[in-house]
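Input:
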Amino acid sequence: MSTPTCMSCRHWQAIVEPSEDGKGECFRHPPRIVGAVFSRIALLEGLSDADSSPDFMDRARATVWPVTFGGNRCGEWDTLVA
Amino acid sequence: MLIAALDARDGDTDIEDIDEREPDDPADPSYPEAYGAGKRIMVGQADLAREDDEQDDPLEANGDEEDGNRDEDDFVRHAANGPGCPIADPDVSVDDGDHSSGDRSYEEWHTLPGARRRAGHVTGKTGDGWAIDEDVEHDDNDSCAAADDDPSRLPSIAYGDGKPGDRDDDEPSLSWPLERYEVQSHPSSRDDVDLEEGAERLRPGVFGIDQTKLLVGEEGRPVTRRLLPGEVGYRATRRRP
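Output:
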């Protein structure tokens, strides 16, 4: 049995080309708002005032799937479906 | 759009390219593209994480790196930046003025003309620290005096022997490679301002620190808060071994 890494997982999709060092997204779960991404966007959008609230586009931009490398692994690994 | 803003921080794209879309409009045809922006950030973060994994030295049980020096013991204090301040870079440290420490040569660094300079010595952490390393001199600047007397405005730097809050008479300060950045009040409102060669206009609200750069202000200290319109920051490049 091959090593259960992202590259061989049915939930993972390479962004460019599957490889140990290549990046891809994990679609095991729906996308979620990631705080760090949102912070970066808010920073770039200048949402520094207390009365500034994130709009739909800001939230959309920060809603992402996890990005991992092909050689990563986790407990949600599942076999590829032919 | 957002990507333009990200690229602009590296000097590749003009900041005016930032898109101003109407909020809360799911019918916006650019909606799928918006997801791409977040994805791109995630990809960038993944690259940085791997880069850090590959370059960090092994750690001792106390969190110190096993490289035979004490520099990295003198971590920056995060709590001294004041309300709303972002996290400072923990790799910035103060040493005892030994220029031979680390892998940088003293001559590599420059002193910013007109910047506030005070006696002291600050160095980046050996190997993977910020590129700030220089002995500096006193330079009177009354406008900074009030800030000096206000402990809440002190930068989150360990002083003296490196213990947080332990200050020597010689106050450390910073110097940096000369990259000058002006924070605009509006992307298009300050085009009449001539910037120095290599300068880049930043948007107000940009934090002083991002993943690869450290901004320092006119006072010669790290900017650990959002810059305000009209403020000028200077970007110190994080060096790699």
